[in-house]
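Subgroup meeting minutes
Present: P.N., E.W., G.H.
Scribe: E.W.

1. P.N. recapped why we're keeping a running log of single-chain structure predictions: easier to compare across weeks, and new members can see raw inputs and outputs side by side.
2. G.H. added today's entry (159 aa).
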Amino acid sequence: MKPHEIKPDTRLCTILGHNAQTGYMRRYFNRIMKHNNANATAIALNITDENFVFTMKSVGQSKVDKMMIEREFGVDVIQYCKSIDACASKEGRVDFIEVKGGEVYGYCLDDEAKALFDKPEFLDVQILFVTKVMLLANRWFDTKIDVDSIPILIGENNG
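Output recorded in log:
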C-alpha cells in the first residue's frame, strides 16, 4: 500500500527494525493484505540500536497496539515485555508485541506456524517466515490462513 492509498478507515500496525521500511516483513505483510483485499498496512519504524531503548520504553504509552519485531531486535525486546508466551520463552526471542492497558506482551509464532504443516522439519526459512506473517495478518486483521498461497506470495514481484 502506498502512502496516498492510506485512508481514515485503513487499519494499521507497526514494524520495528533497522530497515523496516524496505524489509521482507513489511513486503510480505502488505502482499498478504493485498492478496486478501484487506484495507490494512504496516507502518515501518526504522530505528537504530541507539533509539531502541527509548522506543521500547515509550511504546506502552504510545498509540501503537500491535508491532512486528524484525529479527535484529527479537531478543532485546523481551526485557520490555510484561510477559512472553511459551514459544517466545522457548525460542528466546519475540516475533511481535501487543500493547494492552499500557503493558507490552511478547509472542513468538514458530510453534503455531510449524503446526500448519505435516512435515515442518522440511520447511525452509522463507516459507516459515511468510507463514508467521500470514498468522499475524490473520490475528490482527482476520485475513485467511492459506499456506497454499505462500509460493504465490513469495513469487510476486510487486511490493
